[in-house]
Design goal:
The chain is α/β, with parallel strands linked by helices. About 20% of the residues lie in helices and about 30% in strands. It has three helices and nine strands. Bound molecules: inosinic acid (IMP) and magnesium ion (MG).
Length: about 170
């Protein structure tokens, strides 16, 4: 598999994102990691934020994925909900990749109904070519071409999440 983004480049981007995140009006930040793919990005982001003395807590949300990634009418549902109440809090959704945007659009609508002070999205990877719904992305690591990628939390059928870099998966 061909390396698309090297470990050092990823860490640099995560550090940059951490430097862009701050507490507004003293509101506590809740980082909402989307399971499972975001766990590596979230782990690095949280450690850079701690270094910068940003005040945050971490929570997780799991949603069902579309069985077939090309299906656009797919039902999404919450498999694991947040533990924390996000009312009045500054929510930052932390996601590995945005593709069609359907998952994030759904997540935003669910969380928005709980009246947080604000919601922002942080994604490591963005495939803008495949977007079907508009999603505001406040913090982005990289725009990438329309290729299937694995590593740094991203999987193919549950595998490759532990790779330190991001690679293009090519079927042979
Ligand atoms: P969206 O709803 O189409 O934006 O889908 C986003 C979700 O699809 C991500 O959270 C990933 O789980 C998955 N996904 C999209 N593209 C890739 C990829 O290239 N590699 C691994 N997972 C992907
Ligand atoms: Mg995902």
């Amino acid at each position: 598999m061909k390396v698309l983004i090297q470990e050092a480049q990823i860490l640099q981007a995560v550090q940059r994102i951490a430097s862009e995140i701050r507490n507004y009006h003293g509101q506590p930040i809740v980082l909402v990691g989307i399971l499972k793919g975001a766990f590596v990005f979230l782990a690095d982001l949280a450690r850079y934020l701690e270094e910068r003395k940003v005040d945050f807590t971490i929570d997780f949300l799991a949603i069902s994925s579309y069985g077939d990634r090309t299906e656009t009418s797919g039902e999404v549902k919450i498999l694991k909900d947040l533990d924390e109440d996000i009312t009045g809090k500054q929510v930052i959704i932390v996601e590995d990749i945005i593709d069609t945007g359907l998952s994030l659009a759904y997540i935003i609508s669910v969380l928005d109904a709980r009246k947080p002070a604000s919601i922002a999205v942080a994604v490591l990877l963005d495939k803008p070519e495949r977007r079907l719904v508009e999603v505001p992305v406040a913090y982005r690591g990289f725009k990438i071409p329309d290729e299937f990628v694995v590593g740094y939390g991203l999987d193919l059928a549950g595998k490759y999440r532990g790779l330190r870099d991001v690679r293009i998966y090519e079927r042979e």
